Each structure stands twice: as structure tokens, then as C-alpha cells.
Amino acid sequence: MTTLVNTFAALADDTRLGIIERLMADGEQPAGDLVARSTISGPAISRHLKILREAGLIAQRTDGNRRLYAVRPEAMQAIANWTMDHRRFWEAGLDRLDAMLSEESHD
Amino acid sequence: MTTLVNTFAALADDTRLGIIERLMADGEQPAGDLVARSTISGPAISRHLKILREAGLIAQRTDGNRRLYAVRPEAMQAIANWTMDHRRFWEAGLDRLDAMLSEESHD
DNA sequence: TGTCTATTTAACTAAATGGCTAAATTGAAG
DNA sequence: CTTCAATTTAGCCATTTAGTTAAATAGACA
């Protein structure tokens, strides 16, 4: 598997994408906070965190008892680079590129 | 599953990402050409194409006997939008020049 | 030391995934 | 209307994935 496929695989799950979104929105957080916000068990979250870490999407650091997780910008940049590399494809026929680039949020 | 997770899931496979890359590089192609370039069986490719189509990443059109596939720009744009939405994350700490320019007093 | 809290690892199960071969479908051509 | 070519669908099987509960690990502190 290529690195990029690995990155996509890590994000190809609601729980994991949710964790990433949350870490990006609220910054570094301990595993326990992520468990508290989720409907699934602690061990399940722990395993998702491991998958995200092994895919290079998040960094782990220890603070006493707790483990703090944060998104690694490099991983996000890899996706951004890929989209930019193929920009002519999603740009094609879409005449609002400028608007997109200047807007703050989408979805 | 959110639409975005579905998109990532569709790209979370070497064969499928390869198909997408190839369609973006060389444009619309019949299934047979994609099979010819791959190491796995026709039926396997066919199923991957179905997954990509159901995820909205490619469009299918019929030309006589053959089915032609092409990347749908909208799907790529969805990913591009997501990366743009979180741009501050992958930009942070990676663009030193930008960081310098944004600092008022430092030397 | 012993215990409490935070988190991960282990063991297990059900469901999903991805490959194969064989059969079915669909359009073109004789 | 028969046959050929292109492609998909149908079964089948092995592997991976994501969840669970129970047990293990690691740090903080009386």
C-alpha cells in the first residue's frame, strides 16, 4: 500500500474521521476526552488511535497518566498536495475556484 | 457513513487509487483498458469500478459494447474543499516563509 | 506498599472486503 | 438467429476490520 492509500484508509471510517476533525477543531486532547465524546468503548477508540498514529495522521505524547493526541500537519499536507497535483481535474468546469479559495468554510 | 468517509473509503485501496490516477492522467477509458493495465482479473476490476461509481468518484457511459469511465471532478473537489477547510492545520509550521511574513517584529 | 485512574493489549466474534472462476448479459457482426 | 467480444453478476473462500469484555500496564499518591 502506498503512503497515500494508507492515509485514505485511516480516514475511511466515521469514528476516525470524527477524531481527526475534533482534534483539528479543539486541538490536542487526551484519549479519555475522545472516549467521552464517542458512543463506542474505550478500547475501540484506543485501537482507532493506534491506526491513526501508525498511518502518521496523529502524534502521541505522554503527560503523566494520560496520552495526548494531536493531528500531524504533514499528513494533512500530503492530501492537500495530492489534490493540488490534480487540481486541473476538479477545477475543470467549475467556475467558482476563486470563490472557493477565499471562502472560510464549506460542506 | 458521511459522503466524505465514503470518498476516502473508495480511495483506500491501491487498485482503486491507481484507476483514479490513470483516469486523471489519460482521460476517459473503457474497462478493458483498465483491466489490461492491471494484474488482477476483469471481474475484480469491474467490482472496483462499481465501488468507485457508487462512491461518486467516476462516471460511466456506454459506447456500444464498451463502458467508458471517467473521473468526476465534483468528487475530487469535495476532497479539495475539505483540505481547504482545514488549511490552517497543514499550513501551520510548514511554511516558514509565510510564518516570517506574518510576524511583525522578529529578527 | 497498595490502590485509583487512564489507557492499552488480549481474546473472541460478526461482518465486510477483495480475490478467483464460472455463468449471465448486452451489443455488434456475420 | 448465431456467434463473438466486452463487461458484469453470482458463488465461493480467505483475510481483514471493528466491535465487545476482561486482563494487563503505567503513573500518581496516600
From TrEMBL, chains A, B:
Transmembrane segments: none
Lineage of the species this protein comes from: Bacteria, Pseudomonadati, Pseudomonadota, Alphaproteobacteria, Rhodobacterales
Extent of the signal sequence: none
Stretches assigned to coiled coil: none
Originating organism: Shimia gijangensis
NCBIfam families reported in the protein's UniProt record: HTH_metalloreg
Record-given protein name: Transcriptional regulator, ArsR family
InterPro entries registered for this protein in UniProt: ArsR-like_HTH, HTH_ArsR_DNA-bd_dom, WH-like_DNA-bd_sf, WH_DNA-bd_sf
Family annotation (SMART domains): HTH_ARSR (SM00418)
GO MF entries: DNA-binding transcription factor activity
SUPFAM superfamilies on file: Winged helix' DNA-binding domain
Residue intervals of the HTH arsR-type domain: 1-91
